[in-house]
């Protein structure tokens, strides 16, 4: 069956009607996919919390299952039930219902794979691992601004792959790892900014600490100009697929992991349909005289500061690409 927010809610509604007759079972379930590895919609009896369970044979060790409470989604302790083990994932925030249904649909595709159990479980747990990384940071898809930002980073990543190879390029990509600058090279840092409004060319600095004069690791801004282009432009999923096509299996796993940390999963491809073209990429080096707000001068008590830089004011700092 096709798993959507509507089909899940219908299954949960049917299960709730039976809770009063539940006797001793921690969850009530309604099968969505049956087989050696199955998937069910469930309601937890004690608090009526909705979710899904993945039903696997007991010979598969549930010690590999990690209990974890993330943004709107709880990976709960495994349940031993006769010859099976139930792996529950509960929806703890109704606002995450859409993305939870997307998660369930993605898991259903792994459960339905026609392959030996060990291979199926390997693929399934890898996919769940990506979703865990996603849920650590968010319970919704990327905003259009975030999509543009990721496209800009992928453009720089493509250049680094061309010049340094896949492994070195992905090691340098630090934005998904939560570091201050998007790329760390051996002797400098790159902070990627995208912009699209041609009438007001400007970029936004979301953290003053990103743009500083650093004699040890000079900081560069890469300003990537995008345009919406329904004729020759590419969607975010197309650009991801193009980069992945040149990677081996292990490199693809690393790439998918970094993308999950950003907030992109392959199963979301259908929601990112806008096409963009990279029109121009300009590099600016942060040196004396560059217009910036020095973090050391920010008065105490100010905890969040974002400012815009007009690109027309940065002409003196344009230099050839450092990569």
In short:
With 323 residues, this protein is an alpha+beta fold. The chain has helices at residues 5-16, 97-111, 117-135, 144-164, 166-172, 236-244, 249-262; strands at residues 27-33, 38-44, 50-57, 68-70, 73-75, 79-81, 84-91, 183-184, 189-195, 202-205, 219-228, 276-285, 307-310, 318-319. The mean pLDDT is 93.
Give me the secondary-structure category: alpha+beta
Number of helices: 7
Largest sheet: 7 strands, antiparallel
Query: How many strands?
Result: 14
H and E order: HEEEEEEEHHHHEEEEHHEEE
| Percent helix | 25-40%
Total domain modules: 2
Low-confidence stretches: none
The mean pLDDT is 93
**N-C termini distance:** 49 Å
Radius of gyration: 23 Å
Bulk shape? elongated
